[in-house]
Amino acid sequence: MALAFGGEICLDLLGIGLKVSNFAAQTAVVLCSTPAFSSRVTICCQRRNSVVVTRERGKNDKLIKALRNHQIECLELPLIEHTPGPDLHRLALTLQERSFQWIVVTSPEAAAVFANEWKNAGCPKVKVAVVGDGTKQAFRDTVSQPNFEVGFVSSQATAKVLAEELPKPDGGQSLEVLYPASLKASDDLANGLSHRGFKVCRLNTYSTESVKVLPESDVQMALRASVVAFASPTAVKAWMELVAKTHDWNGAAACIGGTSAAAARKAGMEKIFYAHNPGIDGWVESVLEALKNVSAVAT
Fold this sequence. Notes:
Blueprint: E1 2-3, E2 9-13, E3 16-20, E4 27-33, E5 38-44, E6 47-53, H1 61-68, E7 73-76, E8 80-84, H2 88-97, E9 102-105, H3 108-120, E10 126-130, H4 132-137, E11 148-153, H5 159-165, E12 176-182, H6 188-195, E13 199-210, H7 216-223, E14 225-230, H8 233-242, E15 252-255, H9 258-266, E16 272-274, H10 280-298
Helix pairs in contact: 1-10, 2-3, 5-6, 8-9
Pathway: Porphyrin-containing compound metabolism; protoporphyrin-IX biosynthesis; coproporphyrinogen-III from 5-aminolevulinate: step 3/4
Pfam families: HEM4
EC number: 4.2.1.75
């Protein structure tokens, strides 16, 4: 008997015990030769230590790198795409014509969109408040420029906490806040700030949409993963519509935070793990917890 590669899985095929060591692929090609049986057999197996990452292509790198440090393999399956929002054309003009005490930014994509339009507006002086270090890092190429300041980072990467913690200026100063947001973002931030007396100008500068179709070969590979990592309700929706509802998949969801976890629960998923403090570190922990749970159930 000869094996095309190795794994740590024991199989029994037509009464012949096969042990595969260093299992590292979705498909094992086994070459068998015994007095009673000689054939070439392809065996497809679910990978228990693999994760599907679902952000836009190229925006999963941090998570993939962090998971590789734990010897976890990733399949990049983009389930979302960003499109211009209905207010995008107003952002640069608003920055030119008005001044704000704060610009509040709640995601890396919102940061990228804002930075581009800020430059188009001629780089006026702004002070930005962000949710968490992940969003702050999205401004890494902008903060070194004149007139741009990241003046506040919330203690937790949620809009609710940012609304509670955003510093108020001294008496007599403007309480106007510009909120360049996703079209699908909730009103939690704007409502929280308004409740504290801020005057919020919300501009829906981009939208997050589900992809409409996936290559069947990518779907089949994704189905062999035991965990899917979600960073938005839109990604959850796409997974359910394009993969889970049309195929037999019963894995676990590892979510970046409570919003995505709530969407997964509403979609009917049962094994859901999420970071209580959103960010890459917490997301990695939720993935590890999900993998541990799946492994425990399998054994």
